[in-house]
Each structure stands twice: as C-alpha cells, then as structure tokens.
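agent> call fold_tool(seq_1)
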Amino acid sequence: MQVSPARPSRLYPYLAITTALLTLGLIVFGAVVRVTDSGLGCGDEWPTCHGSIIPPLDNLTAVIEWLHRAFAVLIGLFGIAVLVLAIRAYRKQNRLVLMATVTAAVLFALQSALGALVVVLELPPTAVTLHLGTAMLLLGALLVGGVAAIYQPQKHYARDQFTTLAFLAAALTFIIILTGALVRGAGASLSCTDWPLCNGALVPVGQGQGALIHWTHRVAVLGLGITLAMLVWQAWRTRPSGVVRMLAAAGFIAYLLQVGVGALYVFSMAADWTGAAHVGFAAVTWSLMISLSVVEILQTSD
C-alpha cells in the first residue's frame, strides 16, 4: 500500500527544526570542547577513545570529547529521518526543501570527515576553522529546509534594498564566524588585550600576525553591526510583516549580545564560559539571518 506524502510533510518541518536546534547545541558544545582544550581528549584516535568505545571516566577531557561525538551521532540519526521524509514528501513539490535537506546530508558527512581529520592531524587551525564553518553551513541548510516547509507568504513583492541587506547580513555573519574560529585556532584570542582598541591602537600596525588576525575579526564584526542596524531600520520602513521585523530585531539583539560577550572574553582574559557563549550567540545570529533570508526568498519569488 502506498503511503500518502501528507503525513510526512506535516512531520518534516518539526523534525528539521529540531535537528537544527540540536546542531546549534552541538556547535555550542564544540566551543566547550575547544575552550576546555578537550579536542584531543581521546588522543589522536577516531572513532575510538583511548582504544575503547567508552572513554575512561576518570579523564574529564576524554569524557567531554566523547560526549561531543555522541551528540554528533544523535544528530546523524535525526538527519537520516529528515532526509527520508524530505524525499518522500517533497521530491515532486517544493524543491527548495528537498535540495536543502540533501545539502544538509552531504554537509553532515563532510562535517564528520573533518571532525576525524581535526583529531588525526591534531587540531591544525585551518582544519578547526573548516570544521566550524561546515557545522554552520549544516545548521543553515537544515533551517532553509524547515523554514521553507513552514512559512507561507501572504503576499509577494519585488526584491529591494532590504532583501540585499538580509543576504549581506547572513554572509557577514558567516565571515565573522570563520574569522573568529581562525582567531582561536591561531592562538590570537588575546593578541589584543583591550577593547575596542587593539593594545591601545586603532590599527595594530607592527604588532604581529596574531594582532592583525584579531583586528580583522573585529572589523568584520563592526561591518555586520552596521549592516544589521540598517536592516532593522529598513524592516520597519518597508516590511509590514511581523515575522520579518521580529527576525531582523532578534538578529540585531543576538549580535549585540555576541559583541558584549566578546568584550568580556578579552577583559576576563579568555574565561571558558565567555568563549562558549561567544560562539553560541554567533550561531544564533547566523540562524536568524538564514531564516530571514529564506523568508525573503519565499516572499520575493513568483
């Protein structure tokens, strides 16, 4: 007996969003792994941990790294269910949902491979940056599928300056996430020991590569702040939709919290909780900007 696609199409959005939230949690937990220096808690082994499936319980860094891996496996199981539902329910309709879900499946496989590579190569900065970047793209793909399956636009209109700003804000958010990961991976987190200046200078000329990497990250953050402020202003000027206004305002608030925690990270001399929270608010900002971009795509498509 052929199963009707109606039921999985109702289930898909909730499962996709749940998987996205789990991925967001995994990203934050991954930040905990990094700030506690647990990335090599299981040594250079993968998928085993010190020669065993279960980590030694008296080794805290090994337990943290093992829990991170277990979290990833759980997301993989959810992801398989999401992919099956997408193929059954959307292969002949709403191709955006299907393409986003297939993309998420590919990104999860790539993310898992990069995770193993990071361990085997003993955490090189470029691999750590790619690992986080792929995790963010995975989160974004899941949100694209979930939002595209849920949101039904009430009216359509032409793309304008607000649409461009929404796409630009999403791109800049991704850039600051990558540059932030590079700052951490290059050991440049405290290359600028004050804020908003860098060791008393507006531009850290002659202060070394670490200070330059840190300063570049701050410039990207400033660019995102200006873009988000313009985005909120344009939302209230040109968009009557409460969903659009809410996403724009929430993104700006998450950004401000991220900047505040980033400053605390410097002032606290890289306290562990500030590092994890900084990545968490960046991931929330990214999630909101991706969701807003999808809403704009749906509202500006014919």
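agent> call fold_tool(seq_2)
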Amino acid sequence: MRNEKLIKMIKITLLAVMAFLLMYIEVPLPIFPTFLSLDISDLPALLGAFALGPIAGVIVELIKNILHGLLASKTAFIGELANFLVGSVLILVSGYIYKARKTKGGAVGGLLAGTIVMSVFASILNYFVILPLYEVVLSFPITAVVALGSKLNHNITNLNSFIIWMIVPFNLLKGLIISVMTLALYKSVSPILHKENLEREYKSRQNNY
C-alpha cells in the first residue's frame, strides 16, 4: 500500500513538472489581448485526473502553479491563483464525470461539461476577484483592460462586455483545444500511468491458474 501511494505521488509530481514546463509555452492569439495567451499546461493535469482520479489532477495543478509562482511569476501570484482555480474546475468536472462513466462518451461529455463550467466560473472569478486584484496589487486598472479589449472588438465598452466577448470565448476555445488533445493522447498515455495496476492484475490472474 505504501509503495502504491509513493508510485502515485511520483506520477503526480512528474505530471506537475511537465505542466509547469508547458506554462512557458504561450501562444498569443490575434483576436485576444496579449495577456490572454493560450497555453496547454492543463493537459497533464487532465491526463492525471482521468488516470489517477480528479483529486490527483488538482494536485498536479497546485504543484504546477506553486512552481511557476516561485520561479517565474510576473503577477504576484495572481495569475497563478487564477490558473489554479479555473484549471481545477475543468479538471474536477471532467474527472468526476469520467470516473462515473469510463467510456469514450463519458470522456467527451465530461470534457465538454468541464469546458462550459470552467468558462462560466472564469467569467465570475475575473469579474469579482482577478481583475480587481490586478488593479489593486499591480496597479493595472480595469479601464485599461477594457481599452485593450475594445481595440480588438468594438462591442467591448465596459467590464461586462469584456467578460462576454473576451473571457468567455477565450476559455471556451482553450477548453476545447485541451479537450481534443486529451482525447487524442489519453489512449496512448493511459497504459503508462496504469502500468502498476495492469501488472498487479496480470499477476493476480496468474496466481489463480
């Protein structure tokens, strides 16, 4: 039992390090402000959630953001806080649905539901917490955020419209991209993450003969 827990923690740590490294790869999208750059660092956490359980995926998110906050934060941990909370919602919703229904349909449904819930949660979080924190802690006023958005989309005139036209579409797009990558990779990665379980089942069957 102790070895199983140790092996699981090693896997979680390795996934977290992979996620941390992926945070450095940010792709700016011309339809969004530069501070809304796309990264796929939630991918290892989702793979971990599907293979090791939703809580394991959240731990991957936590370690990833702690590492990034300590070594590379440019936002006084505000960006890392947002990344952790938003990513954890995606992971928990997707992971628990897949845990209840471990089929391809369950995975697709979980990821779609996770993406939608994440986008709604990200909107509420940015409106009430993250953007006000940027204004107070980093002196990055919300009016400047709105101004950046309005340069790209003339429908943006205030914070409400910024949330609707920027935060929601960005998180929907990010969630869909990460979901597609998860579905594409999980089948090949799953045997590695489940290696010890498969070996244990094989030995158990051998002993029964």
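agent> summarizing second result for user.
The CA atoms of residues 43 and 180 lie 10 Å apart. The chain is about 80% helix and 0% strand.
agent> awaiting next instruction.
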